Amino acid sequence: MTRDEFDQYCASLVGVSHVIQWGNASVWKVGGKIFAICSNWGEDAPEKDGIKISFKCSELSYQILTEQAGIIPAPYLARAKWVQLETAGAMSDEDIKAYISEAHRIIALKLSKKLQREIGFVDA
């Protein structure tokens, strides 16, 4: 998954906002809370190999994913059950999308019911 594909997919989710911060990282939020990040590492690396995708996950997913090759606890966010994909082949694009959707859902469900309705996550 390229950074553009990552951004396009995240943009398709309900009630999201996007900012560029932390040294050009693509940060995606729902209701003002971060659910996924894509960072570029290394100027000489090809885009597919030079990006790191991080996302929030459930405790069980965190345990399973961090045992797989190419996936590590996300720096600075591991205590909150975030993982980081270190290599392009660590996970298929379809699996990345599924985990990003779940990250979005996990964070959105932590928002107040009022805010969930305001952003269109749940019906009024």
UniProtKB/TrEMBL annotation:
InterPro entries, per the entry: YjbR, YjbR-like_sf, YjbR/MT2646/Rv2570-like
A family per Pfam: YjbR
SUPFAM superfamilies, per database record: YjbR-like (SSF142906)
Protein origin, superkingdom: Bacteria
Name of the protein in its database record: MmcQ/YjbR family DNA-binding protein
Organism (species): Pseudovibrio japonicus
Taxonomic path: Bacteria, Pseudomonadati, Pseudomonadota, Alphaproteobacteria, Hyphomicrobiales
